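Example record

The entry below shows one chain as it appears in the dataset: sequence first, then structure tokens.
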Amino acid sequence: MTKHSFSGYMSALITPFANDQVDEAAYQRLVDWQITEGIKGVIPCGTTGEVSLLTDAEQVRLFALCIEAAAGRVPVVAGCGSNSTRHAIELTLAAQKAGADAALHVTPYYNKPTQEGLYQHFKAIHDATNIPIILYNIPGRSVVNISIETQARLAQLPRIVGVKDATGDIIRPARTRMTCGPDFIQLTGEDANTLPFLAQGGHGAISVTSNIAPRLCMQMYDAYQAGDMATAQAISDSLLPLHDAMFVETSPAPVKYAASLLGLCRNELRLPLVPVTKATEKQVEDAMDKLGMLASMPKAARA
């Protein structure tokens, strides 16, 4: 895989559960459906996959299941982040052994490392492993923020190939492009800002919404790539209520409910996450209805 393999819409996959166990069959069906719908990459064990609630054994098993179901059709970027550098290395080596195409590494949470600590953390992971690494900058969850300067230092390492940017700062992709160069892959982690993120030099998205609307998300991306801004803007606007609904409560609870309506999984999460309220259910259903996603499902079936 080249750096440019990691572009377009990539789905941060939910993890289906059944009676508090990973539903392996549902997971592999989800991966296959995502790819047949046109998605350009899959990410097992990210935030949306409830990774913080998985055992290491479950996480490594999900890597293998995803890689098997993807069957080389799209890149598999394994979520291997940890606030412990040693643990992050162990997970990355496991993903590498399983055949992952790259690893996604969140900024170390809880410890609140300095910028030098962040640099040394990611460098140690890079030096101990052999697959491409995509940084994951999400200060809203991890408290720490990778500065542009630290990101530029990390971009000099040969296998740190890009960043998932969930800062919500729409100026940042332009600054990153100017500092790290146009080949440093930038993937937004904020579904609602995907179109302006692309316009500022981004290469795609690691998306929550694409778990349930992969084809529509890719149609927006493809229209943008083709220079058809009117179509891209129209699709982006139509997706906005769905993006909003996916984050009205803590993710991935809303997208798990939406996926259950599509028959992709059960509406089951692990504590301390809980299913969404009835009010949120209605907001999710209304957003899906506007896009025709529930047209074949009788409303009584959703009661």
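Notes for this example: Confidence is low (pLDDT under 50) at residues 298-303. The chain has one domain: 3-228.
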